[in-house]
Amino acid sequence: MAAFKHPQILIASNLTDGEVVFLGPLGWERDHRRARVAQNAEEAAALEALGKRDISANRVVDVYLADVEIGKDGAPTPLHYRERMRVRGPSVRLDLGKQAAASGGAP
């Protein structure tokens, strides 16, 4: 197992609508700020196990851990560009996904 350097969250794609989701305390969340945060390798392995379970149940695909930093408000923010873009939503259609919901448009 690789050395654990940063807190991590589990990211996936929802099979119903393709939306990026984050594993939270009660299930998959669309808001990364509500994601469960692994603080060590054991917690990260537990998150991955839950993700694999939900892959088998055909709830999500493309499950992986992403390094995050914890902000002053306690919310995790991805460290890498790819995940920062996934948090925002589709970059080619600002009228869809998270950007639209944030601006009062379609969910």
Q: What report would you give on this structure?
A:
Strand 1 and strand 2 form a beta hairpin. Strands 3-2-1-4-5 form a five-stranded antiparallel β-sheet. It starts with 7 loop residues before the first strand and ends in a 5-residue tail after the last helix. Helix content is 28%, strand content 27%. The chain has one domain (8-102). It has helices at 41-56, 81-88, 97-102, and strands at 8-14, 20-24, 27-29, 60-70, 76-78. It is built from three helices and five strands; from the N terminus they run βββαββαα. With 107 residues, it is α+β, with helices and mostly antiparallel strands.
Outline of the structure:
With 107 residues, the chain is of the alpha+beta class. Helix content is 28%, strand content 27%. The longest helix has 16 residues, at 41-56.
